[in-house]
Amino acid sequence: MHFWKMNGAGNDFVVLNNLEEHLPADILPQVARTLCQRHLSIGADGLMVVDAPTQGGDFKMLFFNSDGSVGEMCGNGARCICRYGYENGLAGETQTIETTAGIVTGERIDQRQYRVRLNDPTTVKLDFPVEVDGVSYPCAYVELGNPGLPHAAVPYANLRDADENQLRELGRKLRWHPAFPKGANVNFYELIGPDHLYERTFERGVEDFTYACGTGTGSVVAVLTLLGQVSGRGARVDMTGGTLIIDAEQVQSHISALYLTGPTNVVCKGEVTDEELRLP
Predict the structure, then answer these.
(1) In whole angstroms, what is the distance from residue 246 CA to residue 117 CA?
(2) Are strands 185-193 and 149-155 parallel, antiparallel or unpaired?
(3) Residue from 80, 77, 83, 82 nearest 64 by CA
(4) 3 state DSSP class of 60
């Protein structure tokens, strides 16, 4: 079984081509749990599986978090899989990818830079405070696509200098908060300049901080655009793994389109020989 290991701004993935591997759908969660386990296997935030399109796209992207749960979509993953599709002849310089949350389109800018149109926001609650341990935290809630990928956008002062353990504990409590029936990716952010912010994301399905979160970044910029705190044009978002650029198109009181631009990295290509992986 052949694989690529890729990352987008530090958000890392194992990529399998099921057009060639023909793995049954019911074992993919177990494959994700095994291959994504750090130290014991390849290690990654998630598994992406390329499969045959069913809605007229170039190919289908199945996404599994490292715990084996299904992810509706992944922005950084979509950028990486666009590059995979281009370099493997599955699509041209523009790509149409089928995801669980809907169609995502991508564009090759150069060898490493890719731009994708994220799923449109289907739910936006700008004023959605959440109480944790008797403290009310300002929060906005956004879902991208249908079924919606859930995000909590939480402003956090002095985020770069925050205590890692305290922030992780708060992220965990917010991620599982009953206010979010589907759970939520928790996106802490701080504005640090005009159209410039810093972000940390506690990701659902990874259950820890990741180096970057493309859909979370898009959700935060969508919120700040609607609040008038950023212009929505070329917003720069710094994260642990690098910088992503978000463009949010606003029509009256809603976001009509979200675009995510950033780097991709092909880390390695190889053959899976993990002896803990049980395949039929």
Answers:
(1) 10
(2) parallel
(3) 77
(4) strand
Number of residues that make up the chain: 280
Tell me the catalytic residues.
74, 213
Q: For residue 42, which amino acid is it?
A: I
Is 220 within 8 Å of 197 (Cβ atoms)?
yes
> Could you tell me where the DSSP H helices lie in 47-87?
75-87
Residue 8 identity (one-letter amino acid): G
- Using CB atoms within 10 A of its CB, is residue 229 exposed (0-12), middle (13-18) or buried (19+)? middle
Residue pointed to by tokens 């949010």:
248
In three-state secondary structure terms, 175 is helix
Residue range 98-144, pLDDT digits in tens: 999 999 999 999 999 999 999 999 999 999 999 999 999 999 999 99
Q: Six-digit token pair at 238?
A: 């710094």
